[in-house]
Design a protein that fits this description.
This protein has about 500 residues and is of the alpha/beta class. The chain folds into three domains: about 180 residues, 3-Layer(aba) Sandwich (Rossmann fold), CATH 3.40.50; about 90 residues, N-(1-d-carboxylethyl)-l-norvaline Dehydrogenase, domain 2 (Orthogonal Bundle), CATH 1.10.1040; about 110 residues, no CATH class. It has 19 helices and 14 strands. The protein has an eight-stranded mixed beta sheet. It has a six-stranded mixed beta sheet with strand order 9-10-11-12-13-14. Helix 12 links the parallel strand 9 and strand 10. Helix 18 crosses helix 19. The longest helix is centred in the first third of the chain and has 20 residues. About 50% of the residues are buried. Bound molecules: nicotinamide-adenine-dinucleotide.
Amino acid sequence: MTSIRKIAVCGAGGTMGAGIALVAARGGFETVCFDRSADGLARSRKAAEKFLAKSVERGRMSQDDCDATLARISDETELSALTDCDLIIEAIFENLEVKQALFEELDRICKPETIFASNTSTLSITQIAGGCGREDRVVGMHFCLPAQMMKLIEMSRGLNTSDETFQTAWNWTRATGQMPVETQDKPGFILNALLVPFNNDVIRAIEAGLASAEDIDTAIRSGLGYKMGPCTLIDLIGLDTQILLGEAFYPITLDRRASVPPLLRRMVAAGKLGNKSGRGLLTGPAAVPAQTGLEFLIHQTGESRSFPAGDSFRSSASQAGPVCIHLGGGFEPDTSKTAVLVELDTECLGVHTGEDMGREGSNALGFARYRNGNDAPSNLIELVRQPGTSPEALAAARAVFEAAGFDVAVCADQPGRIVDRLVRPKYNDALRFLDEGLASAEDMDQTCRMGLGYPDGLIERVARGGLERHYDITSAIYEMTGQQGYAPARRSVVAKSRERLGT
Ligand SMILES: NC(=O)c1ccc[n+]([C@@H]2O[C@H](COP(=O)([O-])OP(=O)(O)OC[C@H]3O[C@@H](n4cnc5c(N)ncnc54)[C@H](O)[C@@H]3O)[C@@H](O)[C@H]2O)c1
């Protein structure tokens, strides 16, 4: 049940405002679309008509509902049309002074009960509400792009927001069929606080020569089951927007990972903004996987996390062949082979082979099949090369795994390879946010599933994979890189200590 009847969206001529207005009108609410730009409003109306017509075409909505939804929307360029609204959601430019000025003006003309909501991504709800005259009736409502398709709304209270305001706004989001989660009024709430540093890590990894954008996307999609690879997402968001996000977060959080990676600035300077400019991180289609591979034999020295006993890959091994695969951590150089593969755990390949960087033509490669704790191994093989690895050895190793149906991502011999290097700092963030009370584990996980398209939440996944294992992996990467993002989160240190104590 909601007491709200009439709502307004400020900035309805823009990307987010247009979608939010659709959510409100589709949910049965009289919706005033306000924007300073009449052209913007006309564009949004056209987009709404097109979107709703598609919904009818696909059988998601009746023609009557479509007509009724459009009839509930009115367009306004005068603020005075908003005086009797029960809820006003602003989605105007991301600028504190501009948002504050709008709320001050609205406070002067609106009825006292009107609730103001802000869709800000990076600003503080408390600051936006500051001085508007009704700080107790201002709430954060962060919709996801595109709002008309994404159900998640991150809801937050400013320091002065009343419980009644929060509850009324919360009930309204439920009444529209959206899925609210509660988060504190902190930079980036949940979604962007997890995403902005992660995306920057991805760009830094490319800059550090870890792997290509295509291989990073393959690894994250196949290893973690994310719907979209991070490079595809950054190209979609826009590299210029990613810079703005970093510039907004870094000064407030002083988190080095939030700061703008130099490569990002160079790419934007070169006109590579992502999809909007036709050029971004991804440069071409992924290579076509090999259908056939060379014969291979297996040497086993210890337990294999990649191919446990009974794994079907083992049954395709021969007694001999030009490729030798060492499972369980062992390695013996053999120059008579095209490729010698070493199964890796948290260590680098250099631990087994030495690091003679100038040496050309090495036939040794590392590999690991990505696996979260004791979950079934994923379909991803991370293939580790060194600077002098011969192209023949790399091609042979790739073909052995691709012919067996695995997704292969090639990376340099750097700590954590691709997936752990990128995902572990994010698990650390999520665990720290939990300690700091940013949101509940359920709301954080819901945000990941519904807002980011992950198959499961970060807390759920890191806990399932074992906090002790998280400690082992992050401390190994931390030892090798010294980077703060890998310092094991408190909860994993506790879990490891308890394991050591046998409690
Ligand atoms: N784009 C996203 O992915 C996304 C996601 C979630 C939240 N947000 C937030 O939503 C807000 C809007 O972002 P956007 O990407 O839709 O921007 P946009 O530039 O597409 O749209 C902004 C609209 O606001 C209008 N506007 C600006 N100042 C105004 C004023 N004083 N009064 C009335 N209208 C005004 C502009 O004419 C424009 O139509 C920002 O706060 C942003 O941080 C954006």
